[in-house]
């Protein structure tokens, strides 16, 4: 039942209704005092206490809930909103992005208006034309999927061309076009798509019931496309039944917070979203962790909340300071700022106290079975012989475990759950084990350590996490997660599982990554062939490209099917195409002597850093020398010409990029009469010749002075198979022996001599490259980030 509305609340509801909010939103808002105060202040600042158009009201509501921090230029923003110069959510997002990227004192009104699309009018005809184009490009898919087509994706395509278009009008045109193309919905269109489901017994009922609850919370496809985090409830809604645990005796445990517990939680958090990114510091982070960061940090950022970086450091044997330092550094590189950095080990005393309380309540016991015995008993669903020992006895033995009086492997603390349950994650999971190993963070204070199953949920509760988000393989642990919090009467976060990120031609298992690093199948955790984040960074991939790729995957509960690596490469190319200046490098040089050019003559030619460079912008060009001796790539010369060949051949002309046409007049062979030593050619200073072929090249900067030599490393996929994990024990045999090719004596244009580690370039006709950390003075090393060809959409999935 909703709480009674007092006089002040009634006034707030009236005020919120006057700006066009619907009654449900208005009444929900007043349940959150902070949002109520923010929205009331915004309405007064905007001068619309007497009411306003619904479109204006919705934008003001967004300011109050999403961008509620005060800003020196907020009055200016309100003027633009109220005067309908900023009238779409996209324009509002652009406005706050502009504020975030510019210092308040540097505010420029013209730049602000341009950034927010002020004055840009998008007509219905414009929208209709773009919708027609989008439908034509996606016609095959739409006809196949009919009304199951993701309209949100179509909307996204339109908004890419028309960012300031009104999304509602766009949606209307999409619906209209869909009807024109497909006609009335058929019976098949109304059927729910079949889901592949494993046959389950009682637990399946819990999943079915939970699925019904989630279905009622699902937003529209349009909302999902615009905001991937809209699927998650607000913290104040955390009174729902999180899960149902079916016991083997037929009873059912329904886990949820009561009002008192939730109110206490909301008082501590101020109603904010609290998430956590909880990596185990036992290796380097990979691209799968990039998705987890996007979900955890992204949700907190989108809702104006907080995200912990929490090291899940419960296993001292596998953890290293190197990994801890790397994780913090790579999180920052990915663009995320933790609210606070914590360690599970920070809570070891609290966790120990909770374990003691769990024993006192009769929900845990000290067990003396070894690992093999525990496995056998679980297989047979049999209780441990020590399961029903007296509580006082377990308390005494647990204290002896803590004091180091029991040998490692001779005792564990186990949770008394349900050994006959259909869910194996209720088979009396281990809560504590003995390890006489110093801890990297906690030192030698403890010789007993909590397990993931005991620590993860309890620390989530202790840190007042609102949304505990993890990948789908943890879904079956949801029962034990809530069982433990319920048994200790602790606050329960909202748990939601999403599909993990699986990419072709690599391994994502930390165990396998650790193996190939330790056994030197690759050159360390940051080997550019690995999809570790350190490896991707070294290869030249930007965090922007990684985050765009992850965002494109969405936050869904799909089956986690394999994503083709070409899809990642597509986003890398899109980013580098905009940010990497062009230059020229010849990998396998072949000497070309320009016989009709004086030996001491050197011309300085203009070469473009950017393909769309304007001629009146000097910064968009760089100088390249053109002299009597130039070098082209060996692959660009043949002794026999052919119709479909655009390179150089005897008697044939080609154009040197940014330079002159040259014509091959002679070929000089080595003593073996097979190896080509050099080519003689004449250049056309008047540029009257118009050859089809265009070649990249590098020239001597002065007579007899060799061009800059650089090392170039060409990387291919590390594994030949799309899914090497399917090979089981044979997975190492799938490593591609040609995944790394080193070109030691490539030639580069002079401008590259000043490049530093991390700089990225497009080597024309070759691909995108980045300066590697192995570079030394006088010998730069470049890693190929990705080739120029984009196969995404041409077989990539």
Automatic annotation (TrEMBL):
UniProt catalytic activity: tRNA(Gln) + L-glutamine + ATP = L-glutaminyl-tRNA(Gln) + AMP + diphosphate
Domain Glutamyl/glutaminyl-tRNA synthetase class Ib catalytic, residue spans: 272-577
Gene Ontology MF terms: ATP binding; glutamine-tRNA ligase activity
E.C. code: 6.1.1.18
UniProt entry keywords in alphabetical sequence: Aminoacyl-tRNA synthetase, ATP-binding, Ligase, Nucleotide-binding, Protein biosynthesis
Domain (Glutamyl/glutaminyl-tRNA synthetase class Ib anti-codon binding) ranges: 580-684
Biological-process GO terms, alphabetical: post-embryonic development; reproductive structure development; translation
InterPro entries documented for this protein: aa-tRNA-synth_I_CS, Gln-tRNA-synth, Gln-tRNA-synth_Ib_RNA-bd_2, Gln-tRNA-synth_Ib_RNA-bd_N, Gln-tRNA-synth_Ib_RNA-bd_N_1, Gln-tRNA-synth_Ib_RNA-bd_N_2, Gln/Glu-tRNA_Ligase, Glu/Gln-tRNA-synth
Keyword hit for Signal: no
Keyword Protein biosynthesis annotated: yes
Record domain tRNA synthetases class I (E and Q) anti-codon binding: where: 694-772
A Pfam family the protein falls into: tRNA-synt_1c_C
Chain intervals with Basic and acidic residues compositional bias: 200-209
Region (Disordered): 188-209
Top-level EC class: ligase
Residue span, Glutaminyl-tRNA synthetase class Ib non-specific RNA-binding domain: 10-167, 170-251
UniProt family annotation: Belongs to the class-I aminoacyl-tRNA synthetase family.
Protein name: glutamine--tRNA ligase
């Amino acid at each position: 039942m909703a709480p009674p509305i007092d006089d002040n609340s009634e006034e707030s509801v009236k005020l919120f209704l006057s700006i066009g909010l619907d009654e449900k939103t208005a009444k929900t808002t007043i349940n959150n005092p902070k949002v109520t105060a923010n929205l009331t202040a915004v309405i007064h600042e905007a001068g619309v206490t007497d009411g306003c158009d619904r479109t204006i009201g919705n934008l003001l509501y967004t300011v109050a809930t999403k961008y509620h921090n005060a800003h020196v230029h907020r009055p200016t923003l309100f003027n633009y909103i109220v005067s309908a110069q900023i009238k779409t959510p996209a324009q509002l997002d652009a406005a706050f992005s502009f504020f975030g990227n510019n210092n308040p004192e540097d505010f420029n009104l013209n730049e602000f208006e341009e950034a927010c699309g002020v004055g840009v009018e998008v007509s219905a005809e414009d929208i209709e034309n773009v919708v027609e184009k989008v439908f034509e490009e996606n016609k095959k898919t739409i006809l196949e999927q009919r009304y199951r087509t993701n309209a949100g994706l179509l909307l996204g395509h339109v908004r890419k061309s028309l960012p300031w278009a009104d999304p509602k009008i766009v949606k209307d045109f999409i619906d209209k076009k869909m009807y024109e193309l497909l006609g009335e919905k058929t019976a098949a269109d109304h059927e729910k798509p079949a889901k592949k489901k494993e046959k389950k017994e009682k637990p399946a009922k819990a999943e079915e019931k939970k699925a019904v609850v989630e279905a009622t919370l699902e937003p529209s496809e349009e909302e999902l496309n615009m905001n991937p985090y809209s699927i998650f409830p607000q913290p104040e809604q955390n009174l729902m039944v999180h899960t149902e645990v079916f016991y083997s005796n037929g009873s059912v445990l329904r886990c949820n917070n009561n009002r008192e517990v939730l109110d206490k939680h909301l008082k501590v958090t101020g109603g904010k979203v609290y998430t956590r990114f909880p990596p185990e510091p036992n290796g380097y982070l990979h691209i799968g962790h990039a998705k987890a960061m996007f979900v955890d940090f992204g949700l907190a950022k989108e809702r104006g909340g907080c995200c912990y970086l929490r090291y899940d450091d419960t296993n001292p044997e596998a953890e290293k300071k190197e990994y801890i330092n790397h994780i913090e550094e790579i999180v920052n590189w990915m663009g995320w700022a933790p609210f606070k950095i914590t360690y599970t080990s920070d809570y070891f005393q609290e966790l120990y106290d909770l374990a003691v309380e769990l024993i006192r309540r009769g929900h845990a016991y000290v067990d003396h079975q070894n690992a093999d015995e525990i496995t056998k008993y679980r297989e047979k669903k049999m209780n441990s012989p020590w399961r029903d020992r007296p509580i006082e006895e377990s308390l005494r033995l647990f204290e002896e475990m803590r004091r180091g009086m029991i040998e490692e492997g001779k005792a564990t603390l186990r949770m008394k759950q349900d050994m006959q349950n259909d869910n194996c994650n209720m088979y009396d999971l281990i809560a504590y084990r003995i390890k006489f190993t110093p801890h990297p963070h906690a030192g030698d204070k403890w010789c007993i350590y909590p397990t993931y199953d005991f620590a993860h949920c309890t620390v989530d509760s202790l840190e007042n996490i609102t949304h505990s988000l993890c990948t789908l393989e943890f879904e079956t642990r949801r029962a034990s997660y809530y069982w433990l919090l319920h048994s200790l009467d602790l606050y329960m976060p909202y748990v939601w599982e999403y599909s993990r990120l699986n990419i072709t031609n690599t391994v994502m298992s930390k165990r396998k990554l650790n193996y190939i690093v330790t056994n030197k199948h690759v050159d360390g955790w940051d080997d550019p062939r690995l999809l570790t984040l350190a490896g991707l960074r070294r290869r030249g991939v930007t965090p922007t490209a990684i985050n765009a790729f992850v965002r494109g995957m969405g936050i869904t509960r799909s089956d986690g099917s394999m994503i083709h690596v070409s899809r990642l490469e597509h986003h890398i190319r899109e980013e580098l195409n905009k940010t990497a200046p062009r230059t020229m490098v010849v990998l396998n040089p072949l000497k070309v002597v320009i016989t009709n050019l004086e030996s001491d003559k050197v011309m300085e030619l203009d070469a473009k850093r950017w393909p769309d460079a304007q001629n009146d912008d000097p910064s968009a060009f760089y100088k390249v020398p053109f002299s009597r001796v130039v070098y082209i790539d060996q692959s660009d010369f043949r002794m026999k010409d052919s119709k479909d060949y655009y390179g150089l051949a005897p008697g044939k002309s080609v154009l040197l990029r940014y330079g002159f046409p040259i014509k091959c007049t002679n070929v000089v062979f080595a003593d073996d009469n097979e190896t080509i030593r050099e080519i003689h050619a004449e250049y056309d200073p008047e540029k009257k010749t118009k050859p089809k072929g265009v070649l990249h090249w590098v020239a001597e900067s002065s007579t007899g002075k060799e061009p800059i030599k650089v090392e170039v490393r060409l990387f291919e996929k590390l594994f030949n198979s799309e899914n090497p994990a399917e090979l089981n024990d044979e997975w190492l045999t799938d490593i591609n022996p040609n995944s790394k090719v080193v070109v030691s004596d490539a030639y580069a244009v002079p401008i590259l001599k000043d490049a530093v580690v991390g700089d990225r370039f497009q080597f024309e006709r070759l691909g995108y490259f980045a300066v590697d950390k192995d570079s030394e003075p006088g010998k730069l090393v470049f890693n190929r980030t990705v080739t120029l060809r984009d196969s995404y959409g041409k077989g990539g999935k």
